[in-house]
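Quality-control log, excerpt.
Job 1 of 2 completed; input and output follow.
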Amino acid sequence: MPALAQPLATNFPNRPIRIFAAWAPGPNVYTRVLTDLISPRLGQPVVIENRAGANGTLAARAVRSEQADGYTLAQIPGSVFRLPYMTARPPFDPVADFTYIICLTGYTFGVVVRADSPYRSWADFISAARRNPGGISYGSPGIGTESHVVMEQIAGTESVEWLHAPYRGGSELTSALLSGTIDAVATASHWSQLVLDGRLRLLNVWTQDRIRRYPDAPTLRELGYDIVATSPYGLAGPKGMDPGTVAVLHDAFKAALYHPDSLAYLEGLDQPVIYMDSETYTGFVKQQVHKEREIVRRMNLRLD
């Protein structure tokens, strides 16, 4: 990793650090694991404040107006790089408005149906969509989310049409699926335990390789789609942060990320480690924003 300048304030941090979390408390449990590991290293409490909303972009919007002193950070999900281009008045510039500190991990997405569903494989699901255009429904966490975008990319490749039903989160999606309101759910691994319990069937995963706990679920690449979708996320602060302060935060979070407790928790979530240092993460964001802008244009994704 390239050397970074030492912090100007050698006593950083000397008071608690806040992290604006992008999702509700349940999906943010891993962030809590990290803060428990990092607080002793920094010698200060690290407090999580939930800023759920706006498809995961509310935390980014909130941190944008904070002081660039390292004491307020935000969780940055992939939606931060896409949603500004889905509205006529972007609420922020994902490249210019933030200081990117570290990329940590990503999500394990997949498509699930009920265990008693007639769709026993992905081929069954696609065949049904071909026979009944617009009659097969799937739920996602919202318009423009990774789940929505990938499912529509697949629909274009397969020349099928299905009904997209956006919901506000994992619990609503699960309830709708179990009640029969929708035929399938495409989202991150909120479905994990229900699959292991035999109540849901996992038709595919969107990771690079198959998941150890679900060896029968093929990847999208195995199914013929050149798609790997893990929506990497990390932490950022307001623009203009001192490089030395960034280095202190990066090193502390990297140590927490690779702590055995952190790695064990990620394994339990089936989430991969997707580590990037500050410079690499910033470069990734620039590339990702270019890709997302093109996806929004091509798919005509709009929030207004």
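Job 2 of 2 completed; input and output follow.
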Amino acid sequence: MRISVLRYFQNLRVLRGLLLFGIIFISNACENIYEEPTDNVDVASDLALNIHAPIGLFEMVQHVSDELLSRGLFQQNATGLAQEIGAQIRLIDSVFSDDDSVIYEINFGSNIPSSFDLKQRIGQIQVVVYVDYTEVGSVQKVSIDEQKPYQVILNNGFTQTIRGSFQMVKTSDQGQRFLLDSLSLMNSENPEIQYNGSGYLEFKSISGQSTPGLKGDMLEIQGEGKFFAQQQILNWEIILPLRMRYEFGCSEYAHKGMIRLLTVLDRYTIDYDPFGTGACNRIIKITKGGNQFEVVLP
């Protein structure tokens, strides 16, 4: 009987040891799965977020110009369109024949998210449309008011601010190219960092081009450029076209596509479809030095 009791306690100690090993193993595994990134990918996540500010501005101008020319260049039509985008639209020159241009102004001052994409905007811009917007080769020049810069309010309360001017050139029946050379961008989360640089974004409609405006459409975005931010040179290139889908709850961020970002020291890849589903969500994957990190955009 004494030997049996001894063996019982020996076996119990072995069992406890195995259980303790299992707990440690599982604990370590969980730490590996949920461990916070030890590498800094802020520069890539900032670019992944901030590039949507000019994208959103270009989309808005493209949408308004398309709708105005389709509905007719009358103030009544401009007022109806303004209610959809949460702004005021004023036609300054509504006739092409006088000097081959039409001029309108958008004032995002209502603090009401637009039904177009649910984004909340502030600021004032002026758009000059040279020749008919629907003709290949036509040019639009957009100037942002210096006193009322264009701002997008994000879900977390931070704002993206764009200053300067840019041109939009119609490259094909479904394509528009936007030149970034005269724009500056700042995010209130890191106000000491300001993006300046050069490059372009080219939009091509791949569905919905038969109807005016962008609602219900899907666009592909190509582009490349160079930003200067906080004494860093950021060379970026869209290596897999970004896709934007303009339907309810799905137009805040690209739901597909990849950007390559090169700095002096590092190389990043930003993937807007980390799960390969093309679903609309805020999760992106950033790869740096063979390590992968998931980032949730605000």
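Post-run check on job 2. The radius of gyration is 26 Å.
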